[in-house]
Amino acid sequence: MPVYFFHGEEPYYTDELTQVFENEIISEEERSFGQTVVYGRDTTLGEVMALAQQMPMFGTLNLIIVKEAQDLKFEENETKALENYIENPLSTTLLVFAYKHKKIDARKKFAKALQKSGMLFYSEPVKDYQLGKWISEKLQEMRFKTAPNISNLLAEYLGNDLSRIQNELNKLKIILKEDEILDETVVEKHIGISKEFNIFELQKALGMRDQNRAMRIAHFIAQNPKSNPLPMMMGSLYTYFSNLIIYQTMNGQPPNIIAEAMGVNPYFLKDYAQAAAFYPLKYATRIISILREIDMKTKGLGANAIEDGELLIEMVYKILNIGQLKVAT
User: Fold this and answer.
1) Could you report the per-residue pLDDT of 194-204, keeping only the tens digit for each?
2) Is 60 exceeded by the pLDDT of residue 329?
3) Measuring CA to CA, which residue among 218, 230, 264 is closest to residue 244?
4) What CA dihedral angle connects 121, 125, 126 and 128, to 10 degrees?
5) 193 pLDDT more than 60
6) CA–CA separation, 194 vs 175, rounded Å?
7) CA triplet 29, 31, 37: central angle to 5 degrees?
8) Using alpha carbons only, what angle is made at residue 106 by residues 105 and 109, rounded to the nearest 5 degrees?
9) Beta carbons of 155 and 135 less than 8 angstroms apart
10) What is the DSSP letter of 40?
11) Where is the DNA polymerase III delta subunit-like C-terminal domain (predicted)?
12) Domains delineated in the chain
């Protein structure tokens, strides 16, 4: 295809694919005269279209890459030329747009033309609940040997910035010896995750109903909201207590069947068995309601604006004291 238009909120895939075009389509010897890279903030759509209409100087292909294309002004009078080009592209030109951090307006005529021609490629963000799986697949692809739950630990700390995750994994690949296991100690040392104060330690303290430790961790995390986004922490706790409900409703079935239903390593079932002693089924279902209530508050519904740190402390307190609270389910 002569035109590729990458767009979407997730820049990682757009960057990766753009890099493939930049490094692998035209040989290094021919790039100086057969490849042009421009940036949206420094050019206009009219200038890009003029470049696309040029014949190759020496080789057989003219590669035009527009990086940061979201900074281009797609004015109605200029997009007409793009629409015409999409319908009648030059066979000797390969035109690539890297439009990052957002979608293009699907109502625009040029967007419809791209869609119709199969030249529009959407880079969809990875959902928070999919992030652990995404990292796990990356770890396998890069042939890491890992301790259980490392992908979820990395997901909680690094968030869904895929480029940052990839950079950290590249760094760890260089640092680790061939047979060295990527475990919590390695992550703490080289990425800087606090072993004592993270979502997994909070989860563990809540599972043991250790009030002093859980509140101490909550207060620490509340002081670092950027490193510990509340929505991601709530997502993790929602998964944890949802799994606790699954564990209790499937109690008595083979451990591997329960673990598969929960989507966890069987190694962690002992932790859920311990938590089940503190949070019987009626408490676990109430906690899900607490998490939904806090989620509503983060969105400004049913409460005045409250800092995320305060909401975290409120959430942890209510979970620990769930037996004494009246909760609407």
Assistant:
1) 666 788 889 99
2) no
3) 264
4) -160
5) yes
6) 19
7) 165
8) 95
9) yes
10) G
11) 198-300
12) 3-122 (3.40.50.300), 128-191 (1.10.8.60), 199-321 (1.20.272.10)
